[in-house]
Amino acid sequence: MLKFVGKRLVSALFVLFGATIITFILSRVIPSDPALAFYGPKATLDQSARLRKEMGLDQSVVIQYFKYLKDMLTGNWGYSISTKQPVLHELMTKVPSTLEMIFVSIIFATLFGILLGIWAAKNAHKLVDGSVRVFSIAAVSLPTFWLGLLFQLFFVGRLHWFPATGEFDTELKFLNPIKHVTGFPIFDALITGNFHAVENGLWHMVLPALTLSLYSLGLISRMIRANLLEVLSQDYIRVARAYGIKERVVLFTLALRNALPPVTTVVGLSAAYLLTGTFFVEDVFNWPGIGKFATTALLNVDYPAIMGITLLGAMGYLTINLIVDIVQAKLDPRVRSE
Amino acid sequence: MKHFFNRRASGTRGIAIGVGVLLIAASASATNGAAAANGILKVATSAAVTTWDPVQSFSTEAFYMTSLYEPLIWKNEVGAATEYSPALATTWSHSKDGLTWSFDLRAGATFHDGSAVNAAAVKASLDSAKKDGGASFIWDPVKSIEVVDANTVAFHLSYSAPLDLIVSSSYGAWIVNPKALDAVAKDSKYYESGIDAGSGPYTLTSYAPGSEVVMSAYPKYWGPKPAYSIVDALITSDGVTAQQMLTSGQVDFASNIPLTSMASLKLNHKFAVKAYGSPFNYVGYFNTLRAPLNNPVVRQALSMAIPYSDIVKVGGQGYATQARGPVPAGIFPYDSATPQYKKALATAKTMLAKAGVKNLKLKITYASENGAEARFAPLIKSAFESIGVSVDIQAMLFSQQWSLAKKDPANAQDLFIVYYWPTYSDAGSDNLYSLFHSSAKPFFNLSYWKNTQYDDLIDKAATLTGTDRAASQALYSQAMKILYDQAPGISFYDTKAVYVVPKAITGFTYNINYPFSLFFAKWSPTK
Question: Tell me, what's the ipTM?
Fold first, then answer.
């Protein structure tokens, strides 16, 4: 098992290295003047020249890359051109909000994806099955940002059920501030007993988490349905039913357990997808996470921030893939020997 | 899980969850109304902070600066009883030749750390702005700043200039606590964590980059106490999202609602849609380095092909008027007698043929993040194509559009569309100079046009603005006529500043001289 994990780690490092090279070159190749993001749209020629020199942009791309690599390995990920804050600090303060939303989205997508998949499989080839299929295809196909705007229009604009944006009500920080412990806001509110903030935070999270989870939900429900139908057609299921074992036990204890392993890969990859899905969702819902930071960085061609986000995203993907591989290997010894 | 799919239990559970969600929604929504009662003004804005350094400030952070800092005097909005209002200076005068200006400072004004605003602080602030500021060019006429006594400061100019306009600029004219000037000289990142060094009615309480700015009323402010003790600005780049925040009551005011939404918001009884003259306009530059655009007749012909009224309708959504030259209406030296091109396709086609132009292909660039440009650029394309000129439109980020225009002007775009505004309320020394005065290295003159007669007129007019406004206006008007005749650029339209003002707020005004700013200290809840 250790050898398996070791091999995966080594290949992950190569992937990370490759990702930094590609992103670095792309961000340097795109014509742009960082002075406009740094000083504003009326940045003078002198300011532009001075900034290029300070950022080392007057040197060759190769030298710039190796300088970046050296700084990155010593914890200096540069300063964001647009926010003027250290990139690593920006990422660390914004990641918790994104992770909380991703966590809730995964829970929602997995739970309801599995339930929908079971419901569809139980009613295979009936109206319920068809409806779930249409829903799943729509969830996977419709653009996330469009769904987010639609939810805002309907649930906020028409029904007034949820807030349009943000992580908490603005007044909360003045009337009922959350004490900083771990940096994860809702978690901190929970462990410090600020239940009003927990409730408020979860209420704010409903629409963005729902929007973010739909793609994965659609994927998981289709996968569960397909796997479950295959498993339910197995001989041992027929034997179990013939023995008069309750249908609930057949479904959840015997069939679902064998239908789940392939779905763990999908759940893992979905979690990775959710990292990039946050780019649109956080922008629509003004969520203060790395997704919103990333869209701002891209629009401003903020090189240091783009590099930092790419690096963090790549680390996230690789970590999740590694966890999925380990879980798969634990569940299925054949994977280890491959 | 065992009993989850028990029908009765699951039905009950489902109802409980649904009721729970509704109860949370109802109770949470009740907190929104608490804001106004607590003196908290919540605002959605797209105004990002490029820098908190008031000397370097030259971008959308001006939205906050007018609450945190003060100049010597304020330029009043169009139609006000007086042209200027006292701020940190209470009285001012100038010599007959306009070369010496004197300002008497307000007694009792303090910076947010309690230290006094005095002549030494004024000198230090404006010397710094002149030397290093983002808008340092506005101080070119000033030779030196003298501390006459603790509360009097004098400006000595090398040539006459409208110093009252300059000291009331929304960029490069803030009076800053000298301690902060010393601190930033040692550490250029001093301000960036969210520090203010002003004397204004609000002080910066907290800053989450890209997300939120919170300002609190400064208790020792010399002027009236603001009705809103806290201004909480949520930085929201998407205009539709900002609109949702406003209409759902999540914020009290939103400054960046799309023009395309105004028609529906006009029908909402909670809001009034108000439009004001603004200093913003849309300009296009022809690349005069490239044939056949180096021929004024070709440029005139293309100017006559532009569908101005359609562009005003589509780009401005009814909140714009066709421009008369690059100086926006309401800003000196705007002249309503400046001629405008009108759409005349047949004439345009004939002129192109006479100039020997055949199979002309043009590249037009515009900023993809600008919604108005994205709407009206295709109209230019179809208009040009109707006179036999094929067009390749390229949308790109402004920083890329800018970089392309500077890198290799001879091979850059043929028409560069830009959204512009003057740094301060003198569009003669800004718009007319920046956009079309020749220079060794083009800054904003992205038509790369050189005309010595035009340059001379502009240079002379600038020296008369401070002492003989009428003579200055006459010279500027002549210069604008040359721009019309030579057509190095296209003046598309002057846009209005449109705001959705909640009826629950009183005191909202828009001052054309501070285009990005809103004066929150003057607002109050409607009784």
Answer: 0.83
